[in-house]
Amino acid sequence: MKIFQRHEFRNNHEEWINSVKPVLDPAISSIFHETPDTTGTDVENCKAIRNEMRLALNALLKDEGVLVIPTVADPPPKVGAKEILSEQFQSRAFSLLSIASISGCCQVTVPLGFHEKSPVSVSFIARHGGDRFLLDTVNSLYVSLQEQADLASQSKASRNVVVSREQSAEMAKEKGNQAYKEKQFHKAIGFYTEAIKLCGDSATYYSNRAAAHLEVGSFLQAEADCTKAIELDKKNIKSYLRRGTAREMLGFYKEAIEDFRYALVLEPTNKRAALTADRLSKVFQ
Asked: What's the CATH number where 42 sits?
């Protein structure tokens, strides 16, 4: 069927390639520029095979059936590895990759994560013309698929290494810190929440989540997190500063001034606390 694919590629794209002259991958360029040795009989035979495959798959899947297969037969080789160009590798890869392309059926491929440092995906194939049905089906399954893939990954990890709840919480916190640096504040909130669920007696986790809440305008949640952090660590100056900011945005100016002044008690040289307390005092007292 490679013959047929090359024939259709040339027929469909030759005019565009000749006019635009795009930079093509060497493998594709060689296919396009090589002298075709395909006869009309070869093409008709391939069309007959495609029609047979389409009829067979349509009969198997009917209106609401889905064929689920691995996207490729083997673990993927490294980028630039010689085996990518080997006839054996391409033959095994195309044995699954070409089912949809040859039959004209629709296919969706979903990445599931990694296995032994190699990407893993699964493909869904539906009857010819069932594109909308397949997209809706995969969309409804996607969350469940990801959850199952995560569970499988976590199960394997748990067999290889035992991580304490405190270590897991710290890992979640570090992910939250990274997300915060990248200004992905909602994502950061999720990671800090995960850390709190694992280890709820850390003032830092609550204070960090409060910082992320401030960035998205969730001032009540930020105030509550700071209050919890202060209960756990009454000398956590960042929590006083952040609670003061949250209270100022909520219009609780007296309480905000108290927070900034207490931050000054803990750290007399803190310019932010001094300037904000002075500004609020002049306006609201």
From this structure: 3.90.1300.10
